[in-house]
Amino acid sequence: MGPTRVRDLLLLAAVAVAGSWILVRVFYGSIPPIPVYAGASLYPVAAIEVVLAFMVRSRIRSHQVGDGPRQLHPITAARVAALAKASALVGAATAGVWGGFLLYVFPQRSYLRAAVSDSPGAWVGLVAALALVGAALWLEHCCRTPDEPSDGAAL
User: Measured between alpha carbons, how far is 74 from 88 in angstroms, rounded to an integer?
Assistant: First the structure.
């Protein structure tokens, strides 16, 4: 399993933007109002991943990786890396969905009162999704072993 490539995340987000923009354009009249905290559920996940990143980085730097007590088990490190990879993909897709929603709603603010009330919830969701992507990439970076060569070409 290689590191997550930013271009893959950008491609996923672009596809999600296009798809959600089309869907919102067609079905906006039947979508229920977007509450301000609709996308806020990703903030706790991002915060947990940041805390995990610091814990994993601390254990790896102090060479506390193994199957002993108070050590980071290698399988746990692999699971955390898989969580980070999955979270980055979910965050990119979610950012694309909120971005597509905003792409349609933002120009409509001067015409539709509903667009004005839906915009804050979409912004909260977009920022939460971007925070999740950032936290996931940081967590994935912290899961690398110190002797692993940095792969600048993967970005």
Answer: 21
Give helix then strand counts, H and E, for the chain: 4, 0
Q: 93-105 pLDDT, tens per residue? A: 999 999 999 999 9
* Average pLDDT in the chain: 89
Segment 47-96, tens digit of pLDDT? 999 999 999 998 888 888 888 888 888 888 889 999 999 999 999 999 99
Beta bridge mates, 30:
none
Q: Measured on CA atoms in the order 14, 20, 23, 29, is the torsion positive or negative? A: negative
- Dihedral angle over CA of 89, 92, 94, 95, nearest 10: 170
Cα–Cα distances (Å) from 48 to 41, 51, 136, 139, in that order, read 12, 5, 10, 10
Residue 1 DSSP SS3: coil
Report residue 106 CA to chain centroid gap. 22
Angle at 128 between CA 108 and CA 78, to 5 degrees: 140
